[in-house]
Amino acid sequence: MVTTYNNFWKLWSRALIVSAIMYGSFLVLCFLDTLIKNYRKRGGYWSINSVEKKQKVRTLAQSLLDDVRLCSLSITSLLFCLTMGALRRTFTNAAAFDIPQMWWHSLASVIDITFIILFNKFVARRSLKDLGYPAFNTRSGWIPNPKKNLMRLAYVLCICAGTHFITPLFYKIFGCFQKIQVFDYSKSSVYQKNGSAGVFYFFFVQLVCFYINGVDEESHWRGFTKSIYGEEDRKSPIVVYIISGSVYAGVHALNNGSNDIGVYLLVLFNIISEGALWYGLYSTTHDLVGNWYQHDIDDLFSIWFGATSLAGYALPAGQIAPFYIKCKNKWISGGAFGPGGSIIYIFQNLWTLSVILVLRYIIKHYNTPLSPQENKKFETDQVFEEDFMSSGTFESTSTD
After folding, report:
1. What transmembrane ranges does the database entry give (predicted)?
2. Which of 48, 24, 269, 278 is nearest to 163 (CA)?
3. What is the distance between the alpha carbons of residues 154 and 317, in angstroms, rounded to a whole number?
4. 282 inside domain
5. Is residue 394 part of a domain?
6. Residues 381, 134: Cα–Cα separation, whole Å
7. 378/292 same-domain check
8. Exposed end of the chain (fewer CB within 10 Å): N or C?
9. For residue range 174-220, what is the model confidence (pLDDT) as tens digits?
């Protein structure tokens, strides 16, 4: 019991330190953004007229207090997720990643999702629509739209296929394929206990686990971030990108790290960049469901063909991935941290950036106006959504 308590306190104290550092960093960023915005908007802070000067100072003070509130909301969300992660790592074997562990991971994600929905509604005073969730409108909301889903899968698969084609390309360049080992699932404990059905069930649980995890992380680090920082241009876009990437990196602070400062800094750069890029995808498409797909498919590609295929990764090689590769070059394998500390990640992020830029160009230049019939249907759906939202349960109470 004492050991368990000590393990939890060690993880949670690390979570507190990470949260405190990020809170201070976010405050500095937001304060600078507010000062610059107010200076440009008000034409300076000082004026000959003392009444105007007092009004400017009062407005600036209100903006700075709002920054404190926004940063507090963001860090509370981060600290809750880190606390759940510390509890899961304390009471379960996070490194095993077997079927029970994946169900525990899914349960933790469901708790995280429930928290962010309630926190967004009752504390941040934002609606589900602000969070990025589809409206509860059976005509265009939760009922799958085949055309829209095909468009989502098109750009998601383009990103994932490209990024994970880069991985084996680097393996080939550095001669890692000479040490490839294919895992024989007939010798796995899952197969020996339950046969082929057990192996299929194992991969089914993976799909469920990673999809729920994708909904969880995208709701927190993209949906909620845009809900409180990005709406109505509260903060400059560059500030919101940095915050989204930073909290995404912060939530991975409990993962196994590396004592090599070079690898650790590369990890920090890679994960912040990836988080910012995924926020860029969301701000481009304004479709959080597309980000759910992106997160889920990217995790599955990584698990099957990238991340755990590296022997240095924290998860047991071969238990999840169909194969694994022993690569002694730490800049390719990422060392103890895994692929997040690899130079491969830089090129993967560059590919993701290029796809997002192309997608943004297409949306900007080829997004044709609605026809009269489509526009009438859109207006009807909007009235339906507004009536439903104003009925009480999911009404937005934002006064911004």
Report:
1. 12-32, 68-87, 102-119, 153-174, 194-215, 236-255, 261-282, 303-325, 345-363
2. 278
3. 30
4. yes
5. no
6. 13
7. yes
8. N
9. 777 665 666 666 666 667 777 777 778 878 888 898 899 999 999 99
